[in-house]
Design a protein that fits this description.
Blueprint lengths: L11 H8 L3 H15 L4 E11 L28 H13 L4 E6 L8 H15 L3 E5 L5 H10 L3 E3 L6 H7 L5 H13 L3 E3 L2 E3 L5 H12 L7 E6 L16 H14 L4 E4 L8 H9 L4 E4 L11 H11 L2 E2 L4 H9 L1
Parallel strand pairs: 1-2, 1-9, 1-10, 2-3, 3-4, 4-5, 6-7, 7-8, 8-9
Helix pairs in contact: 1-8, 2-9, 3-4, 5-7
Bound molecules: S-adenosylmethionine (SAM), 6-(5-methyl-2-OXO-imidazolidin-4-yl)-hexanoic acid and iron/sulfur cluster.
Organism: Chitinophaga agrisoli
EC number: 2.8.1.6
Cofactor: [2Fe-2S] cluster; [4Fe-4S] cluster
Length: about 325
Amino acid sequence: MQDVLIRHDWTIEEIKAIYNTPLLELVFRAATVHRQYQDTAEVQVCTLLSIKTGGCPEDCAYCPQAARYDTGVNVHGLLQKEQVLHYAKKAKDAGSTRFCMGAAWREVRDNRDFDRVLDMVKGVNEMGMEVCCTLGMLTEEQAKKLADAGLYAYNHNLDTSKEHYSEIITTRTYDDRLETLDNVRKAGVSVCCGGIIGLGESHEDRIQMLHTLSNLPTHPESVPINALTRVKGTPLEHMPKVEFWDMVRMIATTRILIPGAMVRLSAGRAEMSVSEQALCFMAGANSIFTGEKLLTTKNPSFEEDHMMFELLGLKAREAFKDEKETATAC
Ligand code: SAM
Ligand code: DTB
Ligand code: SF4
């Protein structure tokens, strides 16, 4: 039953009021919305692979892959298709239904590497997994080529508020990000867009970011909420650890504002207990990244997550569920 209207006209004041609701009341409200829109027994299981690591020209202050910071990341060029398909199969066998390939690029260029990525997309799609990519900025034509190759979703995060953005990244603008999201939408590809907390932003910045996300003309189909993973050598290495309660508050507010989306408990799980993750699921998170690494940093193992699913009685959401439901409804 979906009796809460999906809105695209949230005001800052309304979002502030939701965000500042006493925590347990906020979790209860989010859990209520979650039950109206989603099957709460299901969690989407996605796996990331860094197909091109490090050496990135951008200056994103959180990122271990920016060439200008000395982070000790294992720099490598574009992986071979066979290596990628091997890892995708391992992820599929471990129960993952979405495979997301990440590249440390500022933007996609029309070159042989892009052709190779198109081929990887085709290969993973043929394995019956939802394929996602996160490759940086993208034109509409490039998004269409990815769609034709079988791309299901594209991840491009807002990361933070428009106001705080220039404190974190100076090598491209907030509007560049919004333009890429628009190009992805126009190509008919599912949009995955969220942000990071712990970048030194204020509560106001988080509210502003949620305002931008929840007022997009079409809501993103998935919204990853990341806790900053503090990496030695990056400008943000000494930031305080993100409070677990802030993650819960962010997830719950996102669930209420964007009820139809998969809300992904993304970076930060490696430092959370199972009980803490359970509260995030209660608050409306229904997607995670599995596999021992995110892109370059640690994540719980497939085995640990399997045990968590058993304990909490969760099951993996099947691949292409949205399409199947639309087909049945027609
Ligand atoms: N280079 C492409 C781009 O920036 O769009 C794709 C890869 S980039 C690593 C994808 C996303 O990972 C970033 O937008 C950011 O939200 C997230 N990310 C990167 N480093 C992170 C960190 N240390 N902690 C949390 N999230 C991080
Ligand atoms: C997202 O929102 N989080 C993922 C994925 N989208 C690409 C990336 C998290 C990266 C964490 C740092 C790393 O492992 O390098
Ligand atoms: Fe490069 Fe992406 Fe890292 Fe920014 S987040 S430095 S664009 S890999």
